[in-house]
Amino acid sequence: MPSDWQPVINDFKAVVPRVDFWSLRLVCDETETLSVREGVVQPPSLAQSRGAHISFVDRGGAAYAATSALTREGLRAACEQALAWLEVSRRHALIDAGRMPRPERPGRYASAVQTPWQAWSLAEKLELLQGINRELKIDEAIVDWQAHLSRRQTDVTLLTSDEVSIEQAFHYIVPGFSAVANKGAQTQMRSGGGWGSARQGGLEQLAGFGFPDRARQVAEEAVALVEARECPATTADVLLMPSQMMLQIHESIGHPLELDRILGDERNYAGTSFVTLDMFGSYRYGSELLNITFDPTLAQEMASYDFDDEGTPADRVHLIRDGMLLRPLGGAVSQSRAGLDGVANARASDWNRPAIDRMANLNLEPGTSSLDELIGSIEYGVLMDTNRSWSIDDSRNKFQFGCELGRVIENGELKGLVRNPNYRGISATFWRNLAGVGDAGSFEVWGTPNCGKGEPNQMIQVGHASPACVFRDVEIFGGD
Amino acid sequence: MEGYFRQLADTLCAALPAGEVLLLNYRGEDSDFVRLNLNRIRQAGNVRQQTLYLDLIAAGREAAAVMPISGGLGDDLARAQALLGRLREQLPLLPEDPHLNYATEVHNSTRRGDNRLPAAGEALEALMAAAHGLDLVGVWAGGEMSHGFANSLGQFNWHSAYSFNLDWSIYRAGDTAVKQNYAGFAWDGDFLAEKIACARETLALLGHQPRQLKPGKYRVFLTPSALYELMQMVSWGGFGLKSHRTAQTPLLGMVREGLTLHTDVTVTENHAAGPGPRFTRAGFIKPDSVGLIERGEYRQCLANRRSAREYGVPVNCGSEHPQSLEIGGGQLHQDEVFTALDTGLYISNLWYCNFSDRNHCRITGMTRFACLWVEQGRPVAPVNVMRFDESIYHILGDRLEGLTREHEHILDTGSYEWRSDASARLPGALVNDFTFTL
User: Fold this and answer.
1) Which residue from A minimizes the CA distance to B367?
2) Are A79 and A65 in contact (CB under 8 A)?
3) Does B170 touch chain A (CB under 8 A)?
4) Do residues B240 and B302 lie in contact, with contact meaning Cβ atoms separated by under 8 Å?
5) ω into B98 cis (within 30 of 0)
């Protein structure tokens, strides 16, 4: 726990009113970002955030107040705000908050960091980014190129009126680079090095993203894509690499299984779900090759933790086993509302937002096929790599996704590049056409720091790990 | 907080060594957020957040920091000075920044909003009473938002506004619902009650057997809300100078191949009409408006401070993503929309748009909420959600049949980290041969 939290805790305890239950979630966050674009060092930034989220439960009502004003007066004002909303809530509450589970077990968690950010000097890190920039600018056709590297440290302390104390310290590394190639009115972007993703840990995680080693390949592929033919428009097999599988899992398994969506909380914004409460335990979500886990234990994955933000201990469990749907992504409150077992996934994006059901780490477990065997199993299809476009209906059923790079597969062999590879389908049937799951050799840890949901809106980091997978009979197409 | 920010700025700027320039920005929010489900309160609370942004500049180099404001002057100054110390250590390690750009002419301004908001609890009570018996789900977001700028050259700007944004849907069954919104700066309880009454009428229509359309091309009317979703996509790199000069704009065809939109289409970034501040984070004052597309032809780009320096043009925005987009109205009267549509799809809302072919500004997305099938000028049934995939060059180009004369002023409901102060003024659009794919 940051050392300067204790006076804040003391001040809070001095002003907190008598209620049935209170919790205090203190969040301290520091993010440092370095970026070089087209060989120009962008102004480095150092962003700090610090605040308190106060929750009250009293006589069936519940309310919160969040504040960055961490003086005794600021905390007192926040308590008064929460009390005022408690009165309104009590008269019109959707749920009886007094009957909701409360944190019981104290604990601590910290990300594993082998090479801390400070191990490399600012000059070394900037030179690394400059070097990547030089590797990216390989051709006149490259019209924009950039590399960035960030670290984020988030300390979360949860205290309750029941004397439960949970302290968790997260360290993230956020790398990436991209190259944009253009010829006439045709522009193609290729990214790598973890672009759009992140991992828990320190600088040792960079190599796993191919940072910086894949920079030249990324630039070469961007240039090649400009001249590549369009992805064919047909029905064929697709081989989705882990950098696209993460999006496929996220949109068409993760969101539909969120229990608060199923319970209707998100219908005005993020949407509802084609999954209904009666499906758990009996619905075939996919082929027998489909095994999906909620796994907060992979150290380097973005949403690994020991407790969610409601203080529920987190464990690895199967949500889908051998294709059968078993349990939803619902935290303690949602579980109580639905009468279903769920997982510890009630999470808040920051101190200024309340916890809601989020995805955390949602992984597709490896199968038994090597990548070569997956390719060899395809008579005609397209390999698709790295998500760049995502769209799905509010029930999370009809989807259309696009990737940065496609590669035709004919008679079990990889052939030439195709640009603008897109595919569309329906979640409820797509996963039943899962025909091949890669083994540990193609298993990669991805995720996104930008999963959006909730009212007020919350952007949060989620992890998705998967091997490459083959799907049969998918509608694919390219650009105009 | 205006006085507090001025005190912080004065103290920090006074302590600045010679040769350094300091840019300070303040952002504050005191908002209530109340979530509703089944016309009851799911989550209710208040968020008070105040943040100070520091940009330290010396010898042609810049480094930036952000910190929370706790409200204790001594603590806040100590934290700011500590951060400036860290930035001061970084600056000599950076190369000179060729795109460094900040306002050097002093333009002071103050705009303090009046608080004409109702007590949020009372507004919620009125909403729930009006929607009694209905399955209403949504959110109330309201309160004060404020922005400040100060620099060591003596400039000071302040902008504050009190606003609310009540956004809700009323469900009939499954995913069939009426989507509504009431946002603004002063509350009118009768207006809210009328909207809910109108929703009750539409709900009756939604009870009809929904139509399942086959993929194909249909005549459609896009409401301003639906057009807003499409323009959010076009705005993703569509109008920024950097994205144009690096060939990443989805409107590349307009600047490289001479493609045009319909001559009725004029798109403007109307800074003067937006609820946000007129000053940028580097102290520049935005012009009243920037003409982006005029009568179907591409005109100017939005240039932020770094792009402006890089490409040698004036700064005309804070963000190269439009914050107060406006499309000029056409000739179609709002009350003639169904007649003009004749037979086709009335699209009230679109959802989850993204590019399927960025080079051709081709966008895919879903219909959502109360989209209605219209026959001979009369809405007859709801339509199950459909996926579209269509280019803006068709939607606002060769297949555009008309824009409504009337505009809708849309206040963005976004609240990631902060409540948004973006907005748009848009007409509805009548479009022929709009492509649905799934």
Assistant:
1) A393
2) yes
3) no
4) yes
5) no
Task: List pLDDT tens digits, range A399-439.
Answer: 999 999 999 999 999 999 999 999 999 998 999 999 999 99
Q: How many CB pairs under 8 A join A and B?
A: 269
Q: Which residues pair with A56 in a beta bridge?
A: A22, A63
Q: Which residues of B touch A479 (CB under 8 A)?
A: 356-357, 359-360, 362
In chain B, where the domains are located: 2-206, 216-436
Q: Which of residues 279-318 of B touch A (CB under 8 A)?
A: none
* A82 at interface of B, judged by CB pairs closer than 8 A: yes
- By the 10 Å C-beta count (0-12 exposed, 13-18 middle, 19+ buried), A266 is classed as buried
Can you read off the two tokens belonging to residue A439?
A: 């083994």
Q: What share of chain B is helix, strand, coil (3-state, %, to 5)?
A: 25, 40, 35
Shortest distance between the Cα of B12 and any Cα of chain A, in A, equals 18
* Helix B2-14 with B73-90: angle, nearest 10 deg: 50
Check A51 against B68: CB less than 8 A apart.
Answer: yes
Q: Does A84 touch chain B if contact means CB atoms closer than 8 Å?
A: yes
Question: What pLDDT shows up at residue A369?
Answer: 98
DSSP secondary structure of B250-271: TTHHHHHS-----TT--EEE-G
The list of chain B residues with pLDDT below 70 reads: none
Tens-place pLDDT, residues A275-307: 999 999 999 999 999 999 999 999 999 999 999
d(CA B297, CA B293) in angstroms, rounded, equals 5
What is the distance in angstroms between the Cα of A440 and the nearest Cα belonging to chain B? 32
Which residues in A lie closer than 8 A to residue B60 (C-beta atoms)?
none
Residues of chain A with pLDDT under 50: none
B400 forms beta bridges with B431
Catalogue the E-assigned strands of A303-441. Answer: 317-321, 324-325, 346-347, 356-357, 362-364, 380-392, 398-410, 413-419, 422-426, 434-437
Supply the pLDDT for residue A3: 79
Q: What is the ipTM of this complex?
A: 0.96
First to last CA, chain A: 55
Fold of A5-227: PmbA/TldD fold (3.30.2290)
Q: So what's the pLDDT on residue A2? A: 80
Asked if A392's CB is within 8 angstroms of B46's CB, the reply is no
The sign of the CA dihedral B331, B337, B343, B347 is: positive
What is the rounded CA–CA span in Å between residue B163 and residue B184? 6
Superfamily covering domain B2-206: PmbA/TldD superfamily (3.30.2290.10)
C-alpha distances in angstroms, B252 versus A404, A422, B362, B428?
18, 20, 12, 25
Q: What is the C-alpha radius of gyration for chain A, rounded to an integer number of angstroms? A: 24
Does the CB of B37 have a partner CB in chain A at under 8 Å?
Answer: yes
Tell me if A44 and B64 make a contact (CB, 8 A cut-off). yes
Closest by CA to B12, choosing from B174, B152, B161, B203, is B152
Distance CA A453, CA A386 (A): 23
Q: Where are the domains of chain A?
A: 5-227, 230-477
Q: What pLDDT does residue A480 have?
A: 87
Instruction: Point out the residue among A69, A398, A456 whose CB comes nearest to the CB of B71.
Output: A69
Nearest CB among B351, B354, B416 relative to A459 is that of B416
Contact B68 A68 (CB under 8 A): yes
Give contacts of B417 with chain A, Cβ < 8 Å.
350, 352, 459
Identity of the amino acid at A359: M
Q: Scanning every residue of chain B, which has its alpha carbon at the shortest distance from the alpha carbon of A73?
A: B71
| pTM > 0.90: yes or no | yes
pLDDT tens per residue across span B48-64 = 999 999 999 999 999 99
Q: Round the average pLDDT of chain A to a whole number and report it.
A: 97
Predicted local confidence at residue B217, as pLDDT:
98
